[in-house]
Design goal:
It is a single chain. The chain contains twelve helices and eight strands. The chain is of the alpha/beta class and 291 residues long. It has a single domain, classed as TIM Barrel (Alpha-Beta Barrel). Strands 7-6-5-4-3-2-1-8 form an eight-stranded parallel β-sheet. The longest helix is centred in the C-terminal third of the chain and has 19 residues. It is globular.
Length: 291
């Protein structure tokens, strides 16, 4: 069974009001999500605001998460970008001793062809023996990695073990599920679609909502994977409004608003991101009071 089956959580990075990293809050968050039932942690993903961190901060955050996790669950580290040589350099610069896998995003901005995507990830795969999760998120990268390219990589490299598929395209997801080799998992990158995606054969999710709605969200995923769709459907509709509120003004501003109201961390984000509006904040408060 794929070690990244189930629920991975793309951890936020808590900041103090002066913009510095709030490590006590990050420790609280790590303990919160592990207690809530996540299967693994994802450090330095999109939700972490990694693009706004210095190289030193990213290494420190990764080391802190690995230390506080203390091998209770696997840890995945986001290492990706649009400069292939730089990504490969980071693989040797980061301390990955106790890291269980790499999440690597499709190159953004420079709009490579499908052959360019293949060559990019081939070079990364040849540079590390760590398990690799590909990350296709065309809403952020502009470029959509097509199923043929993903499956080409999966078939060629046994340590390319999964894809986080955040295209939101159910037809594309079905092509991936139908064509994948046995060792390769298709994971959701869309929290509001995870129930129907598991129903078509996907094996889990790397989630934003699992930062805050941890117990209900992980139970939803586990029930769906077990084929208990009535229970999963009840949780899906319980969480649906909350999940939508997390993203209505961008990620991670929404989830940090929720985490602040839960007393886990503050809602400070680094520019160019800003906090959610007063209207969205009020809607989140109302949802949580009913929740």
């Amino acid at each position: 069974m794929n070690q990244f089956r189930g629920t991975g959580v793309a951890l936020v990075t808590p900041f103090n009001t002066d913009g510095s990293i709030d490590y006590p809050a990050l420790e609280k968050l790590v303990n919160h999500v592990i207690t809530g039932g996540v299967n693994y942690l994802v450090a330095l993903g999109t939700t972490s605001e990694a693009p706004t961190m210095s190289a030193t901060e990213r290494k420190q955050v990764l080391a802190f998460i690995v230390e506080k996790c203390n091998k209770r669950v696997p840890v995945v580290c986001g290492i990706g970008g649009n400069n292939t040589a730089e990504v490969i350099a980071q693989l040797s610069e980061y301390d990955l001793t106790n890291v269980d896998g790499i999440l690597s995003v499709v190159p953004y901005y420079n709009k490579p062809t499908q052959e360019g995507l293949y060559q990019h990830f081939k070079a990364i795969a040849q540079a590390t023996t760590k398990p690799i999760i590909l990350y296709n998120v065309p809403g952020r990268t502009v470029t959509n990695m097509l199923p043929a390219t993903t499956l080409r990589l999966a078939n060629e490299f046994k340590h390319i073990v999964a894809v986080k598929e955040a295209s939101g395209n159910m037809g594309q997801c079905m092509d991936l599920v139908q064509g994948k080799p046995a060792h390769f998992a298709i994971l959701s990158g869309d929290d509001d679609l995870v129930l129907p995606q598991i129903a078509i054969g996907m094996e889990g999710v790397i989630s934003v909502a699992a930062n805050c709605f941890t117990k209900d969200f992980t139970t939803l995923v586990n029930e769906a994977l077990a084929g208990n769709y009535t229970q999963a459907q009840n949780l899906h509709y319980k969480l649906l409004e909350g999940i939508r509120l997390l993203f209505v003004e961008g990620n991670p501003a929404g989830v940090k608003c929720v985490l602040k109201q839960m007393g886990i961390c503050g809602d400070t984000v680094r520019l160019p991101l800003v906090n959610v509006s007063a209207d969205t904040n009020q809607k989140i408060q109302q949802y949580l009071s009913n929740f």
